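Tokenise the fold.
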Amino acid sequence: MVLLEVEEKLKKIMTCEISLFAQYKEEFSKMKKFILEKEWIFLQRAFENVQQVSDKIEKTDSERDNLYEELCSLTGSDKNDSFYTVISKIHKNTNNEMTDIYRIVKHEACSIKVLNEGFNRFLQSRKNVINEIMEELIPDRKGTIYNRKGFSSHDGSSSSLIVNRHL
């Protein structure tokens, strides 16, 4: 493939990746909204949409890697060289545009990483709160072993706490 063709394809694929990142953020915000509003059916759909966009991003990222390796071979660069080093060896009119697009891709990828980490912390904190509440309400549930019929294998005595609903 000719160098100019690879440059154009790489530019196109990175631009596509940026739009997929925006789509991911949009679907992710819907998912977050549905969790807060406890709309479980809509949450399931939003989660599936996020997963589909994530799969598209993964495929696009793989294509971008392949094009980058091809660009490296065409410019005589090592594939471990930085993007900026490789881009400096191509046509000057494309150079600035490619570096701008690449910066946006990096920025968007970092922002999605932060978004995912924050969401995971949110979910983990909710899980911890629920576990702590359940431990207070039913302290003997932890470590309980159940038999094949689904009943607890210990003698059946329970020291569970009963909570007054009027509290």
About this structure: The chain has a mean pLDDT of 83. Residues 3-139 form one domain.
